[in-house]
Every structure is written in C-alpha cells, then in structure tokens.
C-alpha cells in the first residue's frame, strides 16, 4: 500500500507544480505573462495561420479595440484568440496594451459603485466594446461612449477572474 500512496502523492505534486508553472508562464520575447489580454489597435487586423507574412490569412478582425487574449509569442508575432476561441497570429504592431472588454450580458446595468444596490448609471447592450478602467475582486469599472460604471466581472470578457486592476 505504501508505494501506491507515494506514487499518488508524487503525481499530485506534479499536477500542482504544472499548474503553478502555467500560471506564471512568461513570453519568451516580451517576458510578459501568458496568457494576457490586449486589444486590437487597428480597425482591421489580418489573422494568419503562422507567425510570418508568408503564412495564409485565415480571416480579418474588423473591430477596433476588440479584446484579444495573447497565448503565444514568436518574434514580432503574437498568437491571439477572441472570445469565441478563434485565433491565429497577428503582428504585434496591430495590438495595444490599452485594455478593453466585450459586454457579454444584454442590457447590462452599469452602476455608480461596485455594489448591486448602487444606482444604475448606464445600460450596455451585449457585444459593446468598452474600455476597462479598473477591477476589484468581483467588479470592474468600464466606460464606452462617454458613459461608465461598475459591472460584475463575470458579465464581461477580456479580464481574468482573479485579476485586480487599479
């Protein structure tokens, strides 16, 4: 019995170690965390099958400020994916570190304070791209077209569940 317990414990330690390694992974080019969120700087961005101009364009992102998740780096190229999991390689010059999110919930109430009882300041439709201003544990402050407010973090895409942003 003892060898089985030791093997099971060693396997559990290996799983935890792999999870910690993944959580602290850094890009080999930028030394920034991977995965991380960025946004599309340009009105259009070609998404390629591989990290070079010789690779085929699979599609074109067409929404300025669209949040994207960086999942890999190679030279001047970043492997990204959108909220639907679609992705490919984009040249780094098309990306910005200015954070934006996509509203996932239709008629999302944006509140004055990060509190469900706080007055509603504005309402956002599903699919709206908003600037991410700050985040607490469960709430984020976003703004779009001159309106802003606090929303529950789980109602937007483009921010990690555990992320805190000042």
Can you summarize this structure?
The protein has 166 residues and is mainly β. The protein has one helix spanning 2-23, and strands at 36-40, 45-48, 57-61, 67-74, 77-81, 87-91, 95-96, 100-103, 108-111, 120-124, 129-135, 139-144, 147-152, 156-157. It starts with a helix and ends in a 9-residue tail after the last strand.
List keywords for this structure.
166 residues, mainly beta, SH3 type barrels, 2 domains, five-stranded antiparallel β-sheet, 1 helix, 41% strand, elongated, disordered N terminus
Report on this model:
The protein is built from one helix and 14 strands. A hairpin with an 8-residue loop joins strand 9 and strand 10. A five-stranded antiparallel beta sheet has the order 6-5-4-1-7, with no helix packed on it. A five-stranded antiparallel beta sheet has the order 13-12-11-8-14, with no helix packed on it. Strands 2-3 form a two-stranded antiparallel sheet. The protein has two domains: 73 residues, SH3 Domains (SH3 type barrels), CATH 2.30.30.40; 57 residues, Roll (SH3 type barrels), CATH 2.30.30. Helix content is 13%, strand content 41%. It has 166 residues and is mainly beta. It is elongated. The longest helix is centred in the first third of the chain and has 22 residues.
């Amino acid at each position: 019995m003892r060898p089985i317990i030791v093997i099971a414990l060693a396997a559990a330690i290996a799983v935890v170690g792999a999870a910690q390694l993944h959580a602290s992974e850094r890009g080999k080019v930028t030394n920034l965390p991977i995965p991380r969120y960025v946004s599309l700087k340009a009105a259009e961005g070609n998404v390629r099958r591989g990290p070079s101009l010789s690779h085929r364009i699979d599609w074109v992102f067409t929404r300025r400020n669209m949040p994207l998740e960086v999942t890999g780096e190679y030279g001047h190229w970043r492997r990204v994916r959108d909220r639907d999991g679609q992705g490919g390689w984009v040249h780094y010059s098309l990306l910005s570190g200015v954070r934006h999110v996509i509203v996932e919930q239709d008629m999302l109430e944006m509140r004055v304070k990060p509190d469900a009882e706080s007055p509603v300041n504005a309402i956002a439709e599903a699919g709206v791209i908003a600037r991410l201003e700050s985040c607490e544990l469960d709430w984020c402050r976003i703004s779009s077209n001159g309106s802003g407010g606090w929303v529950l973090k789980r109602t937007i895409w483009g921010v990690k569940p555990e992320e805190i942003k000042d």
